[in-house]
Amino acid sequence: MATTLFNAKPYDPIKERRKKIRIAIVVVIVLVVAFTAWSFRYWRYEHQVDMFFNALQHQDYEKAYGVWMNDPNWKQHPEKYKRYPYGEFWIDWGPGGEWGLIKTYHIDGAVTPKGGTTGVVVQITVNNRLEKCHLWVEKSDKTLAFSPF
């Protein structure tokens, strides 16, 4: 038996209102999740830089070097890191380095440069200086480097 206008169910405004409310809730949830994902898209890279500066702030330079190379066991195979050995790292980031002793730091944000790059640039305020520190975090292995930008 086919349904026609003459035997259709009567309009139920309460049921329709519930349906609209459910749709609105789903849309709001999707928007909140999308906004949250967009806001925290650089969190893991900023977290890597935060661990690095936290180690520097506590003057644990060996741990900081491990974070820089993303290898906490770097001492077991230092020959892997001839490109930037610990001695050079100490000169750059130790007490006599460009930034001196790290007393305070604040991660200002991160951005992916245009041009199909493989990393993220993270901006940090160090010791409340006006000059900002910019570090490169490689997306593939989370190693740190000086920013080319």
Can you characterise this structure?
With 149 residues, this protein is α+β, with helices and mostly antiparallel strands. It folds into two domains: 13-39; 43-146. The chain contains four helices and four strands, in the order H-H-H-H-E-E-E-E. It has helices at residues 13-39, 43-57, 61-68, 86-93, and strands at 105-111, 119-126, 133-138, 144-146. It has a four-stranded antiparallel β-sheet with strand order 1-2-3-4, covered by helices on one side. A hairpin with a 6-residue loop joins strand 2 (119-126) and strand 3 (133-138). Helix 2 (43-57) runs antiparallel to helix 3 (61-68). The longest helix has 27 residues, at 13-39. It starts with 12 loop residues before the first helix and ends with a strand. The mean pLDDT is 89.
For the record, the count of structural domains works out to: 2
Give the helices and strands as they follow along the chain: HHHHEEEE
* Count of helical regions: 4
The gyration radius over C-alpha positions equals 26 Å
Quaternary organization = single chain
Largest sheet data: 4 strands, antiparallel
pLDDT < 50 runs, ≥5 residues: none
Spatial strand order of the main sheet: 1-2-3-4
Return the average pLDDT rounded to an integer: 89
Query: What class would the helix/strand composition place it in?
Result: alpha+beta
Q: Tell me, what's the shape?
A: elongated
**Total strand segments:** 4
Proportion of beta-strand residues: 15-25%
Query: Residue share in helices?
Result: 25-40%
Q: Give the N-to-C terminal Cα separation.
A: 72 Å
